[in-house]
Structure formats: C-alpha cells, structure tokens
C-alpha cells in the first residue's frame, strides 16, 4: 500500500458492512454511512465469492478515497493489498498478525477481534494497530460467540494502549452504559444499517461519542 499509514487515533465510529449485498446496494449504504460521518468502514461480506468481493471492494475503495474515512477489509488480506485498502481486520482463527504484516507491509492498519484480556494483550504485543473487544452484548451478527460482557470490555479498554473498539449489540440505548465504563470507540452494524434514517442515526452515534 502506498503513502503513510492512516492515523486511527481520532476514530470513534466504526461501521461494518455485513450481509448487505453486492455493488449498488453496498455503495448506497456506504454513502449513507459516509454522509453521517463514519470514521472507519469495514467490508465484511463473508458470503461473497472472491470475484464478487473484489468488485465490491474496488468500488468501495473508489468511493471512500474521496472522503476522510478509512477502509478496512475483513480477513481477505491479499485483496486488501491488491485494491489499496487502508488495512485489514482479522479474527482469532484467521491469519496471524505477523503473516498479515508480511503481506501488507508496515503502512497498513491491522485490527484484531478479541474476546478477553489475554487475547487483547497478545494482539497488542504482536503489533496490532487496534483491537475490537466483545461481544459487549448479545448480537445476531455473531450469535455463535459467547458474550464477553461489560466487565471484560472495561478491563480491556482501561489496560490496552492501542485504540480499542467495543463491539457487539451496541445501540443508542446502551451507548451511555458503555461510555460510563470508559468506552469511547465503538463498532456497529445492524443498529445503523437497519435504522429508518441511516444518515441521521450515524450522525447521532458520532455526536454522542
């Protein structure tokens, strides 16, 4: 990837594009998120073939390039490199941070999903640029994962030095509870994507953070 690594230290609102579809629909939703002021967009369309994913990712990259937002690709490290995305997000069962860094180089952002303090510490020590901790609450997006809970989220947020995004079941109703335990960065999907006015709700999340 060309240029300098993007600075994510000021990023507060991270939206996952998940199970939305292909091309026109993804770009329509992404435009709403961007109009609302999202800081980071992650493309996480797990059901798409590589061919379809690349097509969506390339179009999304062109859209995001005209904004200040950061584009992260979920898991598909080589595709992130090939389209010039700002970085990747990997899970505990995906490629290692070290391997991803070998492929992407030092100028790419690498984020990692974590579910407890030991995973968070390990990700930080291995060179992750940020982590997601959760699920904070039950979420239909990943209903197979046990809820980490607020005690774990609070411990990670207060011990880890790199940016930490709370994730999982977050909405405008429980956001204040998260803020009360030290959370100031969140990752969301359904709470915004399924709202009746995506731009308005995105702006409200951003303002309250």
Instruction: Give a short account of the largest sheet.
Output: 8 strands, parallel, barrel
Number of domains: 1
What is the overall silhouette? globular
CATH superfamily: Aldolase class I
Would you tell me the overall average pLDDT?
Answer: 95
**Over all CA atoms, what is the radius of gyration?**
16 Å
How many individual β-strands? 8
Mind telling me the CATH class? Alpha Beta
Features:
209 residues; alpha/beta; TIM Barrel
Polypeptide structure, described:
- By secondary structure, the chain is α/β, with parallel strands linked by helices.
- It has one domain: Aldolase class I (TIM Barrel, Alpha-Beta Barrel).
- Helix content is 40%, strand content 17%.
- The protein contains 9 helices and 8 strands.
- Strands 1-2-3-4-5-6-7-8 form an 8-stranded parallel barrel, surrounded by 6 helices.
- The longest helix has 15 residues.
- The radius of gyration is 16 Å and the shape is globular.
- The mean pLDDT is 95.
Task: Explain briefly what this protein structure is.
The protein has 209 residues and is α/β, with parallel strands linked by helices. It has nine helices and eight strands. It has a single domain, classed as Aldolase class I (TIM Barrel, Alpha-Beta Barrel).
Describe the secondary-structure layout:
Layout: E1 13-17, H1 24-36, E2 40-43, H2 50-64, E3 70-74, H3 77-83, E4 87-90, H4 97-104, E5 109-114, H5 117-125, E6 130-133, H6 150-159, E7 164-167, H7 175-180, E8 186-188, H8 190-193, H9 198-208
Parallel strand pairs: 1-2, 1-8, 2-3, 3-4, 4-5, 5-6, 6-7, 7-8
Helix pairs in contact: 1-2, 1-9
